[in-house]
Amino acid sequence: MRALAGGCSGGYCGDTSGAPPGVFTRMIYLNDPQDRTTRTIGTNMKNIVKLGMVAVIAMMAVGCASVPMATKEVDAASKKFIAPADKANLYIYRNESMGAAIKMPLTVDGQHVGETAANTFVLRQVAPGPHKVQSLTENNASLDITAEAGKNIFVWQEVKMGMMSAGSALHLMSEEEGKKGVLETKQVQGSGN
What is the pLDDT of residues 106-116, one digit of tens each? Predict the structure, then answer.
């Protein structure tokens, strides 16, 4: 392609006369190389940033996993942290937004107890003694716990990067850290017994 008058070459023109700041133009040849019709091929940086932000917000709204939530009253009662005298309260919480598009199923002693989404918790009352908590993700994380009657147990379900989907890890937390984590989250429906 031959060079164009006015310092343009290869069909691109550095002259943006008449165009708003930040807008680039390109010379496009139609049927006649002498017809140098100028078309806008870019846009200003503010519009690019605005468009990007709209896309991110839309993806976040669509990409979040949802699970049925408990009522505000049930959630508030669970956050009083009062364990029954003959059982223990087992709180399994996920207080982070990473992996927001993924639901993570949980089992206790092989029985399904619920699914977490970002910033949610599951509460299950368990008998005193040993129990196995599992997070059924790409890597099926497990944690062995021992419950004591009248006490609370707090397990943090950490979201991990996986090869094909999200993975997880389970961590036994102190009472102080566990309460703090649960208070940052909302209770999943049907997870109180």
Answer: 999 999 999 99
